[in-house]
Design a protein that fits this description.
Elements (H helix, E strand, L loop, with lengths): L2 H12 L1 E9 L2 E8 L5 E7 L11 H13 L4 E5 L5 H9 L4
Parallel strand pairs: 3-4
Antiparallel strand pairs: 1-2, 2-3
Helix pairs in contact: 2-3
């Protein structure tokens, strides 16, 4: 299953409405909202990690957090194939889904 399809599945299961879509080098950012709340949610799909190992690392998570702060997102969802342990810890600390 492609990462975009996984993101679509998460949107359907969580009842997220797609507000905006932005393509960038290596992935897609979806701005979504939940019907039950006014939360602005960033769903980032990383298709091509910059690391040679193919893992999404702490640098990618830090960039996502910076984007969330700069653009006033309330929550974030990261969709990727593989993620480093450090990146997972950072995601948990920042209360990501």
């Amino acid at each position: 299953m492609s990462l975009e399809l996984k993101a679509e599945l998460v949107m359907a299961l969580k009842d997220y409405e797609r507000v905006k879509e932005k393509l960038w080098n290596g992935g897609i950012d979806f701005t979504v909202s939940n019907a039950e709340s006014d939360d602005k949610i960033l769903m980032r799909v990383i298709k091509s990690p910059k690391s040679k190992s193919g893992y999404v690392g702490l640098d990618a998570v830090s960039k996502m957090i910076k984007t969330m702060k700069n653009e006033d997102y309330d929550k974030g969802v990261l969709v990727c194939e593989k993620c480093t342990e450090a990146a997972k810890r950072e995601l948990k600390q920042k209360a990501f889904r």
